[in-house]
Each structure stands twice: as C-alpha cells, then as structure tokens.
Amino acid sequence: MRRLLLILAAIACMAGAAADPAERLPDPVQEARARTLFREVRCLVCQNESIDDSQADLAGDLRQVVRDQVKQGRSDQQIRAFLVERYGEFVLLKPPFSAGNALLWATPWVVLILGGVMMVLLLRRRAGSSATDDDPQSLSEVEEARLQVLLKDE
Amino acid sequence: MITEFGAYALVLALVLSFLQLFLSAVGGAGRSSLLAGAGRGAAVGAFLCTALTFLALVHAFVVSDFSVANVAANSHTAKPLLYKVAGAWGSHEGSMLLWCLVLTGYGAAVASFGEALPPRLRAYAVATQGALGVLFLAYTVFASNPMARLVEAPVEGASLNPLLQDPALAFHPPFLYCGYVGFSVVFSFSMAALIEGRVDAAWARWVRPWTLAAWSFLTVGITLGAFWAYYELGWGGWWFWDPVENASFMPWLIGTALLHSAVVLEKRGALPGWTVFLGLAAFTFSMLGAFLVRSGVLTSVHAFAVDPTRGILLLTIMGIAAGAGFALFALRAPSLNAGGLFAPVSRESAIVLNNIILSTATAVVLVGTLFPLIREALDGEAVSVGAPFFNMTFVPLMILAMAVLPAGPLLAWKRGDARLVVRRLWLALAVAAILGLVAFAFVAPRSALASGGLVVGFWLIGGAVLELAERIKAFRAPWAEVRRRVTGLPRGAWGTTLAHAGLGVFVLGASFETTWRVEAAQALSVGGQLKLGAYELVLTDVGTVEGSNYIAERGIVKITKAGSPVCEARPERRFYPTGKQTTSEVAICPKVLDDLYVVMGERRAGADGQPAWLVRAFVNPWVRLIFLGPLIMAIGGLVSLSDRRLRFGVARKVEKAA
C-alpha cells in the first residue's frame, strides 16, 4: 500500500509545468531568471524534483513566490535566503557552502588531492624498489603458511 | 504445483551454492581436482535450480496465478503478455531472484568456461562466487521469497505500476543486472588472487573479459533506463541524479576505471594492488546500490517498496562480503609487487590520471547521494542534494578527464613523448575548436558553455579517429600496408576507438540538447495553434481510445513547418482503472538527430467555455546522440570482448611461451 502511495505521489509530481503560459511573467528577462532559479528549488512534496519539473500544487505556489520576488526586483541571493528561512535548507537542491555541508563540498577536493599525492608517490618510486620480486610466481614459506591459516579461517 | 516445484528448486539452489563454496574451497586448498570439480558441478547445479525457480515464477505470472503473493501484488489478467513476463522481475522479490539468477549464472560460466585458468585460482573464484550465492539466495529464500503463497487467493491482481509497463523498462532490469551482478565475477577473481597472494599480468588478462562483459551490459542497462525516463516521465529530461540512477552509475564509473587499470596491469604489470581494490569496489558499489534501492533510506521515484528489515539484511550481506574482501586486501596489499616503473608522461600516467578522476567522480556521486542521510544523522538538518550540485562538481571533473583522454592511447608505455602527441592531435583540436566557434557564432541563443561542450565532443571523436589513423598509418603508408594494418589491428584497438568516440557522441548530444532545447506550452482547444520555434502545431482532434488495460484521451497534433506537413503526433493521457492511475504518453516525432516531443496535459476549461488541454512541446536537438553514444560505447566493449587475445586458452599459451 505504501508503494502505491509513493507511485501516486510520483504521478502527482509528474510532467513539468513551469512553462504553463498562465503563470509566466510578462518580462522575458525576468521570466528567464525565474526559470533558472526554479531548477535550484526543490518541490518539497515530491521525491527528487525541482519546482521547474513538478506539477504538484505546492510547486506551483513556490513558483508564484519566486516569480513575485523576481518581479519585485530582489536578487537571486535574497530569494534563496527567503526560501531557506521559510522552508529550511531542504528547499535548495544545491546545499549552500556552510560548516554543516563542509563534508559534501570538501569530498571532491580531498579525494582529488589524495589521488594526486598517490600519483606523485607512484612516480617517485626508485628503480631499486621493484627489484625485490625474485620470483613472483611462487609463494615463500611464510606466505604459504599464512595462506593455510587463512583458508582454515574461511 | 509448478510454484511449489520452483520454491523447492530455490532451496536446492541455496544448498548447492553452499556445496559450491565448501567443495571448491577445500578442493583449492587441498589441491584436489576431484573436489574442485565437484564444486564446479555444484555451481552449474545452483544455476540450473535458480533458472527453474525463475521459470516457475514467469509461469505463475503468465497464467496469472494469484495464489502466489508476488503475482497478486504485481500482476493483472488484463495486462499485455510482455508485461506479465516482465512483471516477474518488476517487484522487489522477483528482481532479487533475477539478481540470484545472474549471480549463479556467472558462477556457472566461470565453472564451465575457465578451463585454461590455473586450477587453484579457478577453485577459489568459484568458491567466492558460491559464498556470494549463499548470501543472496539465503536472503531470497528466507526474507523475500517470490514463490510464497497466499492463504486466500484474490480474484484479481493489483497490477504493475503503469509507468513500468513499457518495453524499454521491461528489458532494462535484465541488462542492468547482467552488468551490476557481473562485477561479482571480478570480485571473486580478486578474492581468489588475494588468497593466492598473486596479482599479475595473467590475472589481469583473465579478469578483463568479465569486466568488459559486465561493463557493456551495464552501459546498455543505464542507457535504456535513461531512454525510458526521457519518453515516459514526460518532461524531456533523461538524467535526474536520482538516488536510484546514482546507485547504478557508481558501479559503472568504478567499472570504467577498472577496465583501464587492468590494461596497465596486463601490459606493464603495474598497479596490481589498485586494480584488485577496484575489482572489490565495483561489486561493493553494486551491493550498495541494491541496498539503497530496496531499503527505503533514500526517497526516489523508482525505488522498490520501503522495508527497513530487508534493508538491514541487505546491509548485513554487503558488510559481510565487502568486509571480508577489504580485510583480505588490507592483509595482502603490502606484499603485492608494485610493478613496472613509468615516467610522468606515459600511457600508464594517463591511465592513472583517468583512474584518479573516475574515483573522485564516484566519490562525488557517493557523497552527494548519501549526504542527506549523513547530515540528518549529524545535526538533524534536512538537506537536498540534486542536479545543481552534481552539475557543478561532476561535470568539471569529466571535462578534465575528457580533455586529456585522446592523448592517452597515443602515448607510449613507460615513457611517452608529449610533443609527438601534440603533433598527432593538433588537427583534431583545431577542427573541434573551429566547429565550436561556428556553434558559438551561429546557434541562438549564444552559449559559451554549450559551445565548449561541443568542442570537447568533437575533440574526443577527432582524437579517436586520429588514433585509429595513426595505428593503420592512413595517408602515410602505401595502400597495401594500410590494408594489412587494418586487417591485423586487434579487436581491442577497435573497441577502444569505438568507446572513446561513443563518449564524444554522447557529449555532443548532451551539450546540444540541454542548452538549445526549444520549449512551448499553451492551453489549446480543438483547433488551437501553438508555435514551437520554426514549427507550427495544431490540435486537430481529441478522441477516446481503449487499450487492453487502460482508457486514454488521445490528441491529434498536426505539425507543420513553413506550411508543409512534418508529422502527426498523438500524445495520450492514459487512465488505468485497476490502480486508478493516470499517466501521460508522450508523442515523439523523430527527425534524424532531433526529436519533436509533444505532451498533453489534463483537460481544463478553456477561455471560451470549450474544453482545453495544456499542450507542451519541445524540440530536443541532437537528443538521439545522447542514447546513441553510450550504445556505441557498449558495442566497443563487445568488440573488445571478441578479441581473440582475451580468450581464456590464449592467455595460458602466452604464459607458457613466456
């Protein structure tokens, strides 16, 4: 039954409606700005959609709010701040740079730098370090013993 | 009766998987070919039994046996036959059975076709595959049995979600699972190599065909899913960075990295530890995906039924399998030989860079998918991570990777010559830049970003073509020499060229479509008109049609361009009475590369009291390339797979000769 509800919710949210002519702003520049903003704002009752895509009533209301504010000449930053104040960070599809979101924004950099360091280490290996493999085909006695222990553990 | 038989066969498959694990492990450790052979027999048996169960479930769906709980919950007598069959894997229980079928199938394949493998490696691989089979079959038998009966059978079933009643989606899961679960073989080979303590070039050669097969299937599976989303969900998008999409994308990214690092290991003996690590990671991400999709910890449009208990079980299975794998890796990694040395400018370095970027991209997708959970656990704050985040992080990484990609195959192993590569590639870069500038100058509205995307796409295609030309010495050697080189070129080289060019084709489509899509919407009464770029749309009629299990309102939209007819689109709004669900059926008029995409909305009251429908229409330029590109990539994978150098027997002969 919950599954059915989920599906119904998904269908209620289906089929983008932001282009509905009844909602559009008369000024095309303002309308374009509003459309760009829509893509960053989550339809709060939907699964994972922006208000640009969603046909849910709430998404329509949010579009109205954003369009009104665009019309009043408020900046993108002000509009985002207003939405966050009203609905929490949940409403933004791109979380802001903040201490709480540090993990999210730092991960790409950390992994990239880690990879870079590993690559440098790999390149700086001395030719001598690979001379230890006298015969890679056979196991040493110690390795053989360890293997037996491992296999028994399994 | 057939159902009981299927249920019995499933338990038998579990027992046989256990025997497969036990006999193969003992056979491998004790060097007993008799026991190892018995283990292989058990692997084939486990597969046959799982296949019997699967057929029994398909049978129950085809004859609409509603005494089977799974059929009653997911089928309906009025459903078309294709979707009755596809219903067998449309639910949580059925798809888990499909997972087990593919898992045991790959196990049986290793057992049957791995004759040239070293006996112990093969025995350990079959044993690991058996261990995975035990875990997943036990889960299926005890926690999600698709053959469970109902005490009182309903007269009619609850039907499958109409959104899923679609040919692309009927075939999407089998491809996806052949990909996803195919990485289990790589996992098993990695475990076997770690148990043996030996990861070398020969091992890389044995693992590569399985990786290629799994990767190609997964590529097709993901593409089918994207295609389905494009024409079924009805707002023209094809990738939403939805958690479920991400779950299938992460194994793909890791699999792509693995394909490349395995080449380095095979040709140069370098990166053994890293390659094994990726081998373990690919299937771990597949299991993570299974957990995310089925546990309900993340909300998604495509997720299965929410069931926390099952989620915990799947998490436990993943913990056991991945835990064992990475623990063994930690134990063994220090003793692995670091392999051949190479200079900063070399093909090895290029592939290491590829691996770093792909791993970072995977980390981005992983953290983006899980961050809402993490943040909620940390301070209770609910956050969303959606497309804008991924566009800002993932896309630049990929552009970086694609900027250096064409140079990779042209660099020599060990020590490459950067100037030589520049001399060979300048033409591709010049052509790509000129085409990008042309797009910047002439395609409205002007977009530097999308034009840059086109440069990247043409650069990839041009680079792939020039690399091929270099290999066959086109325009430089006499014709006979070129012909000899074309016929002598290994399939693997063709595969590389196709895969890299396919990526370029995809980038072209993605850049063009996302930026230069034309959109129009209007509430139209019958006879109403709508202008869409150069096209003129007229809603000439709206009628009612009856399908086998739905009733639909169908609009007839005549599309003309400068007075001459282009096509007739027939968008529908379907109502499925069994589930009381409404879906919109998109009408697509395909041009060569573009699509005219028409969606009809709900009936509403028009201005003059006449009923009106909100008609939305798009011109999606070059959208076909988005789906064509990945298909070319998958074909590249299959062409590589057919390379005779990758066949098992050859690998052994090479090893003996060496």
Chain-wise SSE layout:
The complex is a heterodimer of chains A (154) and B (658).
Chain A: H1 2-12, H2 28-38, H3 57-71, H4 76-87, H5 102-123, H6 141-153
Chain B: H1 2-29, H2 33-62, H3 69-74, H4 81-87, H5 92-113, H6 119-143, H7 167-180, H8 183-196, H9 201-232, H10 243-268, H11 272-295, H12 308-332, H13 347-379, H14 387-404, H15 418-442, H16 448-472, H17 479-488, H18 491-516, E1 518-524, E2 529-532, E3 535-546, E4 551-561, E5 564-569, E6 572-576, E7 581-585, E8 587-590, E9 595-605, E10 611-620, H19 623-641, H20 648-657
Antiparallel strand pairs in B: 1-10, 2-3, 3-4, 4-5, 4-6, 6-7, 8-9, 9-10
Helix pairs in contact in B: 1-2, 1-6, 2-4, 2-5, 2-6, 5-6, 5-7, 6-8, 6-12, 7-9, 8-9, 8-11, 8-12, 9-10, 9-19, 10-11, 10-13, 11-12, 13-14, 15-16, 16-18, 18-19
Short description:
The complex is a heterodimer of chains A (154) and B (658). With 154 residues, chain A is mainly alpha-helical. Chain A is built from 6 helices and no strands.
Largest sheet of chain A: none
Number of strands of chain B: 10
Structural class of chain A: mainly alpha
* Domains of chain B, number: 4
Task: Give the overall shape of chain B, derived from the CA principal axes.
Answer: globular
Radius of gyration of chain B: 27 Å
**Number of DSSP helical runs of chain B:** 20
The parts of chain A where pLDDT drops under 50 for at least 5 residues are: 1-16, 128-136
Return the CATH architecture of the largest domain in chain A: Orthogonal Bundle
Radius of gyration of chain A: 28 Å
- Give the terminus-to-terminus CA distance of chain B: 57 Å
Largest sheet of chain B: 6 strands, antiparallel
Structural shape of chain A: elongated
Strand content of chain B: 5-15%
Oligomer: heterodimer
Based on secondary structure, the structural category of chain B is alpha+beta
Largest interface: A-B, 61 and 81 residues
Mean pLDDT of chain B: 90
- Low-pLDDT parts of chain B are 648-658
Give the CATH level 1 class of the largest domain in chain A.
Answer: Mainly Alpha
For the record, what is the CATH homologous superfamily label of the largest domain in chain A? Cytochrome C biogenesis protein
